[in-house]
Write a structure and sequence with these properties.
Blueprint: H1 2-5, E1 11-16, E2 23-29, H2 33-43, E3 51-54, H3 59-63, E4 69-72, H4 74-94, H5 105-122, H6 132-135, H7 145-150
Parallel strand pairs: 3-4
Antiparallel strand pairs: 1-2
Length: 155
């Protein structure tokens, strides 16, 4: 069952903090309601925001709770689409695939985690000269890969 679910094209779904550009959650999977549900659940508790901006795909309305304000339109998702493009492009480069949907799901999941860490903690926006983590108040400086791999975590 798992092999069947993790075969074929996979999508990278992101939730983004509008004020800082911090990627709150990322999920890899088929373009289904389950993928959106996983994304919404993994985003819960990371922000008090009760607003979601998305494209017109119907999965969001089927999954979102009624208290979440849902805005649809490209004018609301421009930053998210740009970030998603960066993540997809970098994920593809990191495991030497083309800039498109990955076929090797486990590799896509691992490289997506690395790219999200890079995007949030290391990469400095050319205009702001800060990282998303700095703009969100989570860091006082841009991190290095050494900072990320040596950060104490619970296992």
């Amino acid at each position: 069952m798992t092999q069947e679910r993790e075969a074929g094209d996979c999508w990278i779904a992101l939730s983004l903090a509008d004020s800082s550009g911090l990627i709150l959650a990322a999920r890899v999977g088929k373009h289904t309601d389950e993928l959106i549900e996983e994304l919404v659940i993994s985003t819960e508790g990371k922000t008090d925001c009760k607003q979601l901006n998305s494209d017109g795909w119907g999965g969001y309305e089927r999954v979102l709770s009624p208290e979440v304000q849902h805005y649809i339109g490209k004018d609301k998702t421009q930053r998210l689409e740009r970030t998603n493009g960066i993540v997809r492009q970098q994920t593809g480069r990191w495991h030497r695939r083309q800039n498109k949907f990955g076929k090797v799901w486990e590799q896509t999941k691992v490289t997506t985690r690395l790219v999200v860490s890079y995007f949030n903690w290391i990469w400095q926006h050319s205009r702001f000269k800060t990282t998303a983590a700095q703009r969100a108040g989570l860091a006082t400086r841009s991190w290095t890969w050494h900072d990320i791999v040596s950060y104490p975590t619970l296992v």
